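Morning F.,

Quick status update on the modeling queue. The single chain you submitted on Monday has been processed. Sequence for confirmation:
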Amino acid sequence: MAAVTSPETNPQPRVYFQTPPGTDESEVPVRKQGRVTVKYDRKELRKRLNLEEWIIDQLTDLYDCEEEAIPELEIDVDELLDMPTDRDRANRVKDLLVDCYKPTDDFVAELLEKVRGMQKLNTPPKKGELTP
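Structure tokens below.
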């Protein structure tokens, strides 16, 4: 089982492994401290998660249904970020919501506002991989 130290007690994030209860200490190999590494910027991940939760809430309102009953559509934030203009982004989202009977203009405008300034999430290259 792992225990993560808090930032107040240790400025460096570390993971310490503890022996499970009922295990003989002599049977367990000695483990060294391991550093916790983060591949992505946590702030950007949190923003993305919040945006995705907001989108789901808005779609349940627009389609007047539970989350499980939302029509199969995918609003890909990275795809929107790749588009050159807000008009292109708005048209893409409106195309996805073509079967929604409620007005979608407010949703689209607010979505574009939330997407503005976000960064595209790229998988960081692994050691030894060349970046283009």
